[in-house]
Amino acid sequence: MHKHIFVATDGSDTAMRAVDLAAEIAAKFEVPLTLGHVLQFDKTSEELDRMAESEHLVEHVSRSPHINFQSMTGSMADLFAESRPRDDSVRVMTMIGDELVRRGADRAKDIGVKSVHTTTSQGDPADAILGMAEEVEADMIVVGHRGLGALQRWLQGSVAEKVNKDARTTVVTVR
Asked: What is the CATH number of the domain that holds 123?
């Protein structure tokens, strides 16, 4: 019997299917569900734009005062250069992460989960997912098989693969 389920989301279609499955299991067994997102400061602006557009996050985040989304070029790491305002870059990435987990939490509540929590982290995606799951004492981790980072996956291997290999608990990978 599961006591706490953790699901990771990056906003991709596969990740949202993982959220749905995790929520269905959590609702059925009446256990808490935590949704987590790893802030990706090293994503290229094109990949971030694709992620944001797919979930209509650009519109939501762009309503924030004092943030100029159009000035973001290069990789997200470039945004931390001293020539650009660090606070805006961090704020945009954090707002996108917060919005992703909020939308996932709303979806989980609609499915019937009574206790839903959200969290974000940063760093290596697999390590961050494992860390967040451990922090909430999850005994099941649900991840999508493929997320948004196709090039990174090709170069470094699958995040889901690493989570599955290194987890100390049950891992369900959704396709």
From this structure: 3.40.50.620
Which range marks the domain in which residue 149 is found?
Answer: 5-174
Alpha carbons 148 and 43: distance in angstroms, whole number: 10
**How far from 112 is each of 18, 101, 123, 165, CA to CA, in Å?**
15, 16, 31, 31
User: What is the spatial distance between Cα 88 and Cα 67, in angstroms, rounded to a whole number?
Assistant: 6
Between CA 31 and CA 29 the distance in angstroms is 6
- Residues whose CB falls within 8 Å of the CB of residue 153, separated by 6 or more in sequence, listed in order: 146, 147, 159
- Strands 5-8 and 33-39, sheet pairing: parallel
Give tens-digit pLDDT for 123-140: 899 999 999 999 999 999
Write out pLDDT tens, residues 59-85.
566 566 655 655 555 544 454 444 444
Domain count, the chain: 1
What SS3 state is found at 116? strand
